[in-house]
């Protein structure tokens, strides 16, 4: 079963993805984590993307799509993909369809964790204290939220007519969201 967790930064996608990894024996594909790892390892890609990441701007499709490919085509991960932070634009959604078609897979469920701006700001401020992410300061949060509204949210139109699309109130407690997801997954 392949799943997309969709929503604004701070919606709780990563938290739910980690839970689903355990529950379904799946693999979390967090493009944010993959990119942060490149920076940590100080790779050539890492050096190219560090400024964009710190400023809360998107990393180019070329880089993200290339990094993503090997996970989608990994036989050990097949049908166990839990996407967290990808796709983030219409072109990425189309690219994901191409990769999935090319590897004989499909998306089984899309969960949209819907959270308002005020809740996101509060959550990310708390996350900043715990995770110390350099892109979690207020200015950057606001920029990331604007990018979400302009570029990512429109992707909902691409998915929302599918019967496997589920909108969940992402302002609920973590365990309430988890239990909603479980109901849709029938697990
Ligand atoms: P996240 O951990 O999902 O909040 O992502 C952190 C940052 O990584 C984003 O603000 C972007 O700079 C970059 N990033 C993560 N996923 C993507 C993506 N799918 N496309 C472009 N940039 C991304």
What does this 3D model show about the protein?
This protein is α/β, with parallel strands linked by helices and 187 residues long. 57% of the residues lie in helices and 12% in strands. The model has no long low-confidence stretch (mean pLDDT 96). 30% of the residues are buried.
Characterize this entry briefly.
This protein is α/β, with parallel strands linked by helices and 187 residues long. It is built from nine helices and five strands, in the order βαβαααβαβαααβα.
Q: What attributes characterize this protein structure?
A:
single chain; 187 residues; alpha/beta; five-stranded parallel sheet; 9 helices; 12% strand; binds adenosine monophosphate
- Which bin fits the share of residues in helices? 55-70%
Ligands in the model, by name, code or SMILES, are: adenosine monophosphate
CATH class: Alpha Beta
Strand order of the largest sheet: 2-3-1-4-5
User: What's the number of extended β-strand segments?
Assistant: 5
Count of runs of 4 or more consecutive helical residues? 9
Structural class designation: alpha/beta
Number of spatially distinct domains: 1
Distance between the termini: 12 Å
Question: What's the CATH H-level homologous superfamily?
Answer: P-loop containing nucleotide triphosphate hydrolases
> If you average the pLDDT, what whole number results?
96
Which architecture name does CATH use?
3-Layer(aba) Sandwich
Judging from the principal axes of the Cα atoms, what is the shape?
globular
Beta-strand fraction estimate: 5-15%
Poorly predicted runs of 5 or more residues: none
Radius of gyration: 16 Å
* N-to-C series of helices and strands: EHEHHHEHEHHHEH
Q: Return the CATH topology.
A: Rossmann fold
- Major β-sheet profile: 5 strands, parallel
